[in-house]
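cron nightly-structures :: item 1 of 1
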Amino acid sequence: MRALTSAFGKLPLHQQLAATACLCCLISGLALVALAAQSSSHSQANLQSEYGQAVAEQLARRLGAEMATGDRLGIAGELNKLTEQNGIAAARALDVDERELAAVGDQKLSSLVFRAPIMIANDQAGVAEVALNTTVRDSTQFRFVLSLSGLAILLSIAVYLITRTLALRLGKDLQAVTAELGIVGDTQNVSANEIEALRARVAALPLDLLKPPSDENHEGHQHYVETAILFVHFRSLPGYLETVDERRLQRYVAHIHRMIYGASGFYSGELQVVRQFGIAVWFTGKHKIASPTVRAASCAWLIQQTAPKLEEQLRLSVGLGLAVGGSELGRGDGEDIYPGLYTQAAVDELEVLAKQSGDTIHLSETLVQDVQLRNRVGIEEEPHGSFKLGQFADGHRDLVERQREILLRALITSDEPEN
């Protein structure tokens, strides 16, 4: 069955549609023929039943007179007269004890037998039996069913031809579209079925490049929202590249990475290496603590306050330049590089501020205007016109102090430092 279905699916579209329509028409037609045959048979059976019972009662009245005189020849004569009719196959006369008095014809050839009591002076003297000839009825019923079935087949053939003609036009249109797409993919091995051929040609098209960005692919354009950026410049790292062995250098970078990663984890920040000695931490979207700008400033403060303790453990300088800024767009990704290109100017500005920050946390001019940042963090202006991060408000300061303690417990271990 599966092989038959597979073979049918490979046929051209006009053959599939025509065969399907023809089969549906044939099934419907034969179902109607069966219903009509059953209805006709039931009607004929009712008519023959009424006719057979009437004949049996008439015969019983005639035989009553003959039996009253005891004339068996007369009884046989009445039976012979009755069986001369085409519709009567056999007839019998029985006495009260069901013994046969006379019989004409072969009753076994009929399935319709009707009985009527023979009455003499209101007393039953016997039984008259009449068997109808069903040959004519059966042959008529057979011809009726055969003619209707033939008509159903002819109609199905007509439906097949009409559907095939109409489907050929549709198939030609699909073949034309398939041919237009034939410049992509294999043009030799094409399925005979127009739908399969079209599906194969469409599958060969670079649809991923043709379709526009959607909300599903970009999660609601997450890179087209206002973003806060924390730039961390590894000020001490260049001096250790030639003076510290590779194993210790890797340990040094790994510990700083853990610190930045842990601090950003409190505020859902995402790390990205953007320069040779610089990391950008991106803050976007809503957060239960605060806006992206407040989260970026808080993360910078955690890194600044944790770095000295980490420096004691590593016995190497952990000099980090910190600068916080913002952008109208996010960092972008592999599916949409425009936001990443747009934010490069903001990253370049923050890199310059981070290199000049010293022991402070510099803020870009665009970030200074943020209302939520001003409500939670003090902003101080320096003599040369730049801005730096000041003190946190009391409530927020308690929060970042607790986070600092958690971060220190996670970073500062009892391992012996390597020399």
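cron nightly-structures :: done
The CA atoms of residues 190 and 197 lie 6 Å apart.
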